[in-house]
Amino acid sequence: MNNTINRLLINDKCIVLEGFDQINDFATFCFYPSGIVIMSELPERVKEYHVLVKLDSDKKIRNENILRKLLQRGLSNETIFIKHLANYYELNPHEEK
Description:
By secondary structure, the protein is mainly beta. Helix content is 9%, strand content 40%. It has one helix at 64-72; strands at 6-10, 15-18, 26-32, 35-39, 50-54, 60-61, 78-84, 87-90. A hairpin with a 4-residue loop joins strand 1 and strand 2 (15-18). The N and C termini lie far apart (31 Å). The model has no long low-confidence stretch (mean pLDDT 89).
């Protein structure tokens, strides 16, 4: 198990991933009804709830669409994720409203 704290930070211009050691250039955000999962790779079958995003070299995401989706789910300025295998799960899931 990885002891690194994985934080998703939101400000008004971008999303910052702190930790997330398996994620480099791309990440797949999975907006499941029960919560959000961030995958370090593209799934074999892309579904409508998968969103592939490109990260800057400083692990920042500048994508208004994904930012809006996260805010609609109720994520605020800091959300903790836990790692299981190569995926990251919200510690306290934000269910679909």
